[in-house]
Amino acid sequence: MIEGPRKRFKRHEEVCHRFLTFSTFRRIPLFRNPRICDRFVEHFAESRLATGFRLVAWVIMPEHVHIILVPRAEVPVRTVLLKMKGPFAEEVIARWRELRAPVLDRVTAASGRPRFWQHGGGHDRCVRSEEKLIKNIYYIHQNPVKRGLVADPTDWCWSSARWYAGIREGQLPIDLPWGRPPGDIRAWGH
C-alpha cells in the first residue's frame, strides 16, 4: 500500500506559567563554581531577549535549575530551553577543553562526548492557579535554605528571591504576575 505524504500538525502549547526543572549531567554539582552560575545567568538573560518569555521566578542550585516563566504563544518552551541551555553548555565545555579541566572525565557520556546537561528536557508543569504559583515560587526560593546552603533565601545570589525582597542590583528583572509581590516572601509558604 502506498501512503501519501504525512500531514504535519502544528502543535500549540498551552500558554500558562511553566514550572521548568532541568539537571546537570549525572546530577554532578557543576554550578558550585560561581563563574559558571554567572555565565548561565548571562545566557539566561540573552535567551529571554531572544525569545521574549516573561520571567516569574528562578533559582540555580549546584546540580539543577528551577524556572517559572510564561513563553510567548509563538515560541515553544523547547525553543526557549535550546536557546538558554545549548550555547551555554557549548561555551563551558569549550573552556574546560581549553583548560584540560579534570571535570571533563566526569561529564563525558558513553558516546565519548562531554555533556553539561542531563539528557532529556527535564520537568515541565503548567501552573494554573495563583495559589499554586505562590507555593511554587516559595518552593523555588526555599531550595537553597532547605539544602543548608544559606540561612535566608535572599542570601543566595542565584535566585529571584533577592528581587522579590527588593534587592535589585545584579538581578534579572522579574515580570510579576500581580504587578508587585503579594506580601513578604518569607511568609508565602505558611
Task: Outline the structure in words.
This protein is α+β, with helices and mostly antiparallel strands and 190 residues long. The chain has one domain (17-185): Transposase IS200-like (Alpha-Beta Plaits). It has five helices and four strands. The chain has a four-stranded antiparallel sheet, covered by helices on one side. Strand 2 (54-60) and strand 3 (64-70) form a beta hairpin. Helix 1 packs antiparallel against helix 2 (77-99).
Descriptive keywords:
14% strand, 4 strands, disordered N terminus, 5 helices, globular, Alpha-Beta Plaits, single chain, 190 residues, 4-stranded antiparallel sheet, alpha+beta
Strand content: 5-15%
Distance between the termini: 63 Å
Instruction: Give the SSE order as H and E letters.
Output: EHEEHHEHH
Mean pLDDT: 87
Task: Find the CATH superfamily.
Answer: Transposase IS200-like
Q: What about the largest sheet?
A: 4 strands, antiparallel
Look at the helices and sheets and give the structural class. alpha+beta
Tally of separate helices: 5
CATH top-level class: Alpha Beta
The radius of gyration computed from the alpha-carbon positions, rounded to a whole number of angstroms, is: 18 Å
Number of domains: 1
With strands numbered from the N-terminus, the spatial order across the biggest sheet is: 2-3-1-4
- Total strands: the figure is 4
The name of the CATH topology is Alpha-Beta Plaits
For the record, the CATH architecture stands as 2-Layer Sandwich
In helices, the fraction of residues equals 25-40%
What general form does the structure show?
A: globular
Spans of at least 5 consecutive residues whose pLDDT stays below 50 are 1-12
